[in-house]
Amino acid sequence: MTESTANATLFEQLGGEAAVNAAVDIFYRKVLADYRINRFFDGVDMDTQAAKQKAFLTMAFGGPANYSGKDMRDGHAKFVKMGLDNSHFDAVVENLAATLTELGVSQELIGQVAAIAETTRTDVLGK
Amino acid sequence: MTRIKFNEQTFETENNETILHTLLRNNVQVPYGCKAGVCQSCLMRSLDNAPPSASQVGLKDTQQKQNYFLSCICQPENDMTVVLPNAESVWLEAEVIEKIELSSNVVFLKLKSKEPLAFFAGQFVNLRRNDGVIRSYSIANTPNGEHELEFHIRILPNGQFSRWVADELEVGMSLSFSHAQGNCHYVEGQAEQLLLLIGTGTGLAPLYGIIRDALSHKHQGEIHLFHGSRDESGLYLEEKLTALTQKHPNFHYIPCLSGADVSGKYTLGRANQIALEKFPKLNGWRVYLCGQPEMVLHSKRAAYLQGASLKEIYADAFAS
Q1: Would you place residue B88 in the very low, low, confident or very high pLDDT band (cuts 50, 70, 90)?
Q2: Of all helices (H) and strands (E), which one includes residue B162?
Q3: CB pair distance less than 8 Å for A65 and B38
Q4: What parts of chain A have a pLDDT lower than 70?
Q5: How close A64 gets to chain B, by Cα (Å)?
Q6: Over pLDDT 90: what percentage of chain B?
Q7: SS3 of B267, please?
Q8: pLDDT, tens only, B34-83
Q9: Considering only residues 131 to 170 of chain B, which have any Cβ-Cβ distance to chain A shorter than 8 Å?
């Protein structure tokens, strides 16, 4: 590893906002096509939803975000009522990892992204 | 330092400050979320000077062209008058100059505005009757400098507004209307792009405007229009659209019937299903969807899953 990459943040190493834009299109398509979780997205406005996916990816990539645990909790409360549980959370993380693999991101960085996503689990599931 | 006008008040920005920050600093409450240009909660529009393009990152190109921007990342370079999306509630006056029956339940209505007006083909306006009843209708024509607006009004059996249009509205009468709104319109600059347009019922109106706009800008890519109706009388622009295909070889018109086909010359089935089966790979396409909300919602998802980028899918869902 060169010095410059050693000092770069995770967000920079992943390619910043351009990387988020590339990832969101692939990621959201995977999520909508995934029979395990796509029922949670029935009837939602896709543009609004894509913007939320982008906010989520920005955060998971270690980028600028101002989302609090309360936002996550409130935003997912209705899905918890619909039965959202650990298996669905795992499926989303799996789709995230698959997206990054498709974009040629190293396993090490994917591990870091997954670790950030993991920090939202209890809020998302309302635990 | 620049001056920002919002709701009749003027505020001065401080060094490198964003518009959102200026407003919040002055205790003006506006919606916002991430403050990082991501969630688009703080979307605003400039009514005069164009915003810096850096504040339009991630917006649809139709929104960029209409000077929409994200206030949380907008460091203004010029003075601007800004509004929240769809906050413009100014009413303009127009006179009815033509009214024709297009089919047993569709009326063609042409209005002439008393003031100059700006719009893109495919946008919609709200029409308001004198007693305050308001309905949204898509514009079916392209801007021609005559300040005219054309509509295809579907007459619903118990429609408070549409029945009035059919039975009482006459040439010479006046009507108020709002500024044009909506992102479902043609944008110049990608003349080779493939266009897929799917409309049901009078969802054809905005598509007809968009197609003529594209052709008048010499669009070179193939343009495929699927128009769906239950019965033959609903294919109310067949003659004009067929004539257009003869004039423009890159324009294709596929009328679809979901009910019985008495004459045997139409494609049978739902327009959206036929279109999306015919073109399973939509990577790089631009897709326009107008009509029944359920058809629009379903087709939007399907088009996206078939490869179209969300930014290239334009939809107007109306219960008309």
Answers
A1: low
A2: helix B160-167
A3: yes
A4: 1-7, 66-67
A5: 6
A6: 66
A7: strand
A8: 787 877 778 999 989 999 999 998 888 888 988 999 999 999 999 999 99
A9: none
Alpha-carbon gap, residue B38 to B15, rounded angstroms? 23
Please report the beta strands in chain B, taking only residues with DSSP state E, as ranges in sequence order: 3-6, 9-12, 43-46, 68-70, 80-83, 91-103, 106-113, 124-128, 134-138, 148-154, 174-178, 195-200, 223-229, 251-257, 267-268, 286-291, 313-317
Question: Who contacts A10 (Cβ-Cβ below 8 Å, separation ≥6)?
Answer: A61, A62, A109, A112, A113, A116
Rounded Cα distance between B156 and B111, Å, is 21
Burial-class residue B319 by CB neighbours within 10 Å (0-12, 13-18, 19+): exposed
Q: Any idea how long chain B is? A: 320
ipTM of the complex: 0.77
What is the pLDDT of chain B when averaged over all its residues?
91
Q: Write the DSSP assignment of A49-112 as a string of letters.
A: HHHHHHHHHHHHTT------HHHHHHHHHHHHHTT--HHHHHHHHHHHHHHHHHTT--HHHHHH
What's the pLDDT tens digit per position in B18-37?
999 999 999 888 888 778 78
B144 phi/psi in degrees, rounded to 5: -125, 10
Q: Is A44 on the interface with B (CB under 8 A)?
A: no
- Residue B86's closest CA among B114, B126, B55? B126
| Superfamily holding A3-124 | Globins (1.10.490.10)
- Judged by phi (left if over 0) then psi (alpha if -120 to 50, else beta), residue B298 lies in alpha
User: Which positions in chain A touch B38 (Cβ < 8 Å)?
Assistant: 51, 54-55, 58, 64-65
User: What is the reported pTM?
Assistant: 0.78
Q: Which tokens in the block code for residue B35?
A: 């403050």
Residue B131: exposure state from Cβ atoms within 10 A (0-12, 13-18, ≥19): exposed
d(C-alpha A51, C-alpha A25), whole Å:
11
Residue B11: how many other CB atoms lie within 10 Å: 18
Interface touch A32/B304, C-beta < 8 Å: yes
Instruction: Tell me the mean pLDDT in the region B95-107.
Output: 94
